[in-house]
Each structure stands twice: as structure tokens, then as C-alpha cells.
Amino acid sequence: MNVVPRDLMTEIPVSSADFRGAMRHLTGGVSVITAGRGRDITGMTVTSVTSLTVDPPTLLVSINRDASSFPLIRRHGAFGVNILNADQLELAERFAGKGGLKGADRFAGAQWVTGISGVPLLAGALSAFDCEVEEILERHSHGIVIGRVRHIRSSTRSAALAYWHGQYVAVDQDEDAAKLAEVSVPARSRRGI
Fold first, then answer.
1. Rounded to whole angstroms, how far apart are CA atoms 17 and 135?
2. What is the pTM of this model?
């Protein structure tokens, strides 16, 4: 492998539009982040959740510092991560701001339980994580929030909601496996047997 010396490389600025366009190719699982307690609650739809470590169980989420959830996460030191089912598109859009609802009004029409930290957790989520903030790293417009998982609620459902190329898509383990089986070439035929 030939490596070009750094002093010979020309830096080409990356535009926000080019970056967004390229990132649309990355499929992301859709989650609702919840924050606050009592009536002082809010939430937002994100695709920026990832596991950080298994031992101890830790999640990482990137949140715009201008989002209404950010100050509540900072103030209360806790947040919820609710991984959405494929049939929860309307909820994803509501928490993304469609319809103009804000704060506690976004929670209407779904069943919520109070986590051990006090944050609302979606009763019908594929999985809901109650997290305690370990650290917030501020970079550019966002805060990288590292949360220690204190409690998990999981369902037995298998269809998830994902976001790809600017659209919500359903990922259903059972249906997608059946579709792949219909179009796949049997192993014998591939080997010429």
C-alpha cells in the first residue's frame, strides 16, 4: 500500500450538503430519547444511538445542544432510550417535530411507564433503556452523552423501525428472512452440483 505523505495531500473542504448526502446511505435504527420528570418532560427522535460497552452496559447518543432534551438531560442526569417498533412511525414523526407538538404533548397517545431514574419509557418499545448520565462531551453543535444503563425493558416483537435515504423503513426479521429465502439460489446450484 502506498501512503501519500500528509504534506502532499490537498485538503478539500467537505460541505454540509455533501456530508448529509453521504450519510443518507447509512441505515440507522430509530429511537426516541426521553428526558425530564413529571410534567417537565420532552423527547426527540434520533438515529444516533449506539452501544459503547457491554461491561458495564453503556450507551452513547449524540444530541444537538439546541434541542429541548439536552438541558433536561444535563439537569436531571438521566435519559431514556426507546427503540421503536416498525408500527410506531407516527410516534417517530411526532417526536421529530412533525405536527408542531412540544414537551409533554408529544407523549399523548402512547403508553409510558416511569423508569427508575424518573424518565418516561415507552411501554411498547422493542427495548427501553433507563440511563444515568456518566459524561457529556461537547463537540461543535452536539453533546455526546454517555449513559450507564440502569434498567432495561424488552418486548418479544421482532420488527424494528429504521431510517434510510430520508425515509422510515420497516425491518422485520421474520418477513425479511422469508423474502430472502424466496429469491436466494439453493446452495447446491451455486456449487454446480
1. 30
2. 0.83
